[in-house]
Write a structure and sequence with these properties.
87 residues; mainly alpha; 3 helices; 89% helix; 0% strand; elongated
Amino acid sequence: MKQIINAFSSEPVYGLIAVILASMILYSLSKKIIKMMLFFLMVFGLYLAYVGLTGRDIPVNQNQLKTALEQDIDKAKKEIKNHTNNK
């Protein structure tokens, strides 16, 4: 560990390269985190739009959300099953 620290402190070029690499890694990680946040916000927005268009109340706590999602999943399963049986 001391050898690495001595190499970075004795040669400023190594330090500069390390700083550039670290900044590139942080930049790429922050881009991925921002993309994930935007994706989840879009999914949440679509869910809110779906709930609003179907005339349901927007869930305000975790239990209501869980119940609503379970009902929607069950409904989707039934629709898929009916659709595949009719063909």
